[in-house]
Amino acid sequence: MSSLDPFRMIGKTLAGHFLVQSLVGEGRSSIVYKGLHIGPKKPVALKCFKLGSWLDAARAETFLKRFREESKAASQIGKENPHFVRSIGSGMTTSDDGVYVPYTVLEWLEGHSLAQDLTDRGLRGESGGRPLTELLVRFESVAKALTQAHEQDLVHGDLNLGSFFLVKEPGSESPTKILDLGVAKVIRDLSREIAPGEAPQLIATPSHAAPEQFDPKLGDWGPPTDVYALALVLVEVMRGRAISSAGEEKDFAAAALDPKKRPTPRSFGISVFDAVENAFAKAVALAPSERWSTVAEFWSELESAVRSEEPTRRVLPAEVLAEEESEEVQVPSTEPRPAMKPATDDTSPNGVLIDATGLASSAPPAVGASPPQVQAAAAAAAAAMPAAPAERERVSALPVPAPAPAPVGGGAPAKSIPAPTRSSPSAVGAGLVGVTKSTAPAAPPASGSGGLFKIPPPTPSPKKLDVGRITPAPPQPSDVAATGRASQPHAIPRPGLARSFPSTPAKPRSDLPPPKVSVTAPPVLSPLTAVPATTPATPARKPEPVEVRRDTPTMPIEPVSDVPRISPVEREAAPQAGPGAIEIKATPPPPPPEKVVENGADGARVVREMVPPPKANVSVGDLPSVMVDEPDQRKDKDTRQRETMRIAMPNAATPPVPWEAAGTNNALVAPATKEDSDSVVYPPRTVRRRRGLWGVALVSFLVVFVLGAIFIGLWHYSTELP
Ligand SMILES: Nc1ncnc2c1ncn2[C@@H]1O[C@H](COP(=O)(O)OP(=O)(O)OP(=O)(O)O)[C@@H](O)[C@H]1O
Q1: What is the pLDDT of residues 372-418, one digit of tens each?
Q2: Ligand 1 atom nearest residue 29's Cα
Q3: With a 6 A CB cut-off, is 191 part of the ligand 1 pocket?
Q4: Whether 45 contacts 105, CB under 8 Å
Q5: What DSSP character marks residue 711?
Q6: What single DSSP character describes residue 279?
Q7: Chain center to CA of 18
Q8: The Protein kinase domain covers which part of the protein (predicted)?
Q9: Which residues in 100-172 belong to E strands, given as ranges?
Q10: Closest CA to ligand 1's atom 17
């Protein structure tokens, strides 16, 4: 195999849709090419798996079928959650060497993997790792995404630095994406099923494989498997260097299975707090059952550990905030803290979080994500940012004295909220833990400062301005550390603040009485409809019913024939009725229409009648179908005047509109409105009528007849004379 193109794929078209263009990179178990999705002309990544010779012709088809089935759930979550790379399809091809190559087609991502990032930083001489506080922010979204996958029984099974892709696309929904969710487990299961004993035992990356991946006796792969690997990835980033992947599989196995050699931060020389080390120790425990059972638990514990040890006023480095894709903003409010209740429901994605940094407030912030207020709060947050770099240095420094309790509630003694522990999962699980501000003990928070609270979210609605507002309430003694920093959805989180993993059950805080929250939604009346603005959003607008009114004057003329005056064009435009037809009754006569009488070239009298044709863009053209009930010309005049015309309209509920008809011989399709009629060009229709033609003929006939009879009579009389 060529090292430039190991499978010799470049230039091939896979499945008739994907042109392989260039090699992107080669990992342990796959080779990634850049390709072109020929139809939509979009770049794609073609990930070709190196499975080995056990996948032969006999097994290839079964493998592909099962691979597709098993990958369904993973590709589905990729469609729903932007933190996973999206899978477009999968297939099987053969290399020039006759090797069967299953492949997946993935959305193309601009950027590079976390592995590459670390390498690049090393090359740039940026030695040193990143502080855990920063990682907790940067990777919070992927931790949440993994939790979501676990809830759907999906295990990644091969997390490593290459599994995290740092997207460099402006406006990207998620700057960090997880690659290869579920692929390792699917391949492991299928290889065991299809080629038992032949396929390799270890599918995951040896340096990051959990003990149970080396020794199945310890248990099956599950969320703790990913917790283990994620912990190693965090350690690598904190350290600023990847764990060496050089070595034999058996050496990695020996290390992973050694109870005395746990890969914690300190084992790699990283100086961390005891609580942080303990959280990691549990994450990389030998037995899966001894680890954090979910990523959410691990994450919350790390946050708690960081909070419990560091000064509580932590300001995030500006560049982290700029790069972070998080969904929540912790916004310092300049207004008095509203009535709040403890965050007992951490599952609500729209929850507004109030944390505790002692920022004074003086007016009730609106809860309904009122844009102006959120902007004001965000501006206040931005104003607080300049202190960031200095603050970061101080935060990273070790050890750090415990924060002094901040006086709260207008001088009341501070009540410090204990750092959450496993024994107090209420705070840990939800990640909703108060932070006491220790950097400014002399400036106590104005009122009600304590804890991290979650205000029930307003009804999700794009028009949040009208949702309501929080009614301010007197400070609660229990609001020890609340600060009035509200976090709005789609805002930037800060480490150590609210964490709300979807999997974590809602747990009320036992140490705080429930403060009151009053969300009122004063009805806002629409000037036109007087419907409260809080009414559920109206569905997409249906087409306005078009009132078809025969208000264009037409000329009543003498009927020449009984053929109804509807042009072929009008007939074409009015073939059939549909649901929601509007009835238009042809009843009383219209105002006198314009009448043009002129002499034809042959002396005949020509009457020009202004007949409106169907209007293409409104009265007929926009309508899916039009049905015209033509007046039956055999009926008498009055009956015909009462004939109706129906124009089919989707969802039209317009009552019948009287059609001011003039006489019986009017065109049946008219512009819908006066405005429409203004824009309609009425081609004159010439009607020629020859008056008295038949009379002349008749008289002539009679004259000839009478004259003939006289002539014959006279001739007969003369011949009979002697
Ligand atoms: N969807 C994608 N868009 C763009 N580049 C991608 C995509 N998926 C993977 N890559 C890149 O392709 C290269 C090879 O990826 P691959 O997953 O095969 O290797 P790896 O993750 O480094 O190693 P391993 O297969 O051992 O996990 C990496 O640089 C990766 O960042």
Answers
A1: 333 443 343 333 333 333 333 333 333 333 333 332 233 333 333 33
A2: 25
A3: no
A4: yes
A5: H
A6: H
A7: 26
A8: 18-329
A9: 100-107, 111-113, 164-167
A10: 27
Q: Ligand 1 in contact with 25 (CB < 6 A)?
A: yes
Among 23, 32, 44, which is best to mutate for testing ligand 1, by the most ligand atoms less than 8 A from CB? 32
- Beta carbons within 10 angstroms of residue 460's beta carbon: 12
Asked if residue 454 belongs to a known ligand binding site, the reply is no
Q: Which amino acid is at 575?
A: P
Size (the chain), residues: 722
**In this structure, what is the dihedral angle of CA atoms 102, 105, 108, 112, given to the nearest 10 degrees?**
-30
CA dihedral 120, 123, 124, 126 (to 10 degrees): 90
First vs last Cα of the chain: how many Å apart?
A: 137
* Atom 20 in ligand 1: residue holding the nearest Cα: 27
Lowest mean pLDDT among 7-21, 106-120, 390-404: 390-404
Query: What is the tens place of the pLDDT at every residue in 527-562?
Result: 332 333 333 344 444 444 443 333 333 333 333 333
Is the shortest distance between the CB of 24 and ligand 1 below 6 Å? yes
Query: Model pTM?
Result: 0.50
Q: Tell how far the Cα of 123 is from the centroid of ligand 1, in angstroms.
A: 20
**Ligand 1 geometric centre to CA of 209 (Å):** 18
Q: In whole angstroms, how large is the CA radius of gyration of the chain?
A: 41
Quote the CA–CA distance of 366 and 362 in Å, as a whole number.
13
Helical residues (DSSP H) of 360-413, grouped into ranges: 371-383, 388-396
State how beta strands 100-107 and 87-94 pair: antiparallel
Q: How far is the CA of 128 from the centre of ligand 1 (A)?
A: 25
Residue 607's pLDDT is 54
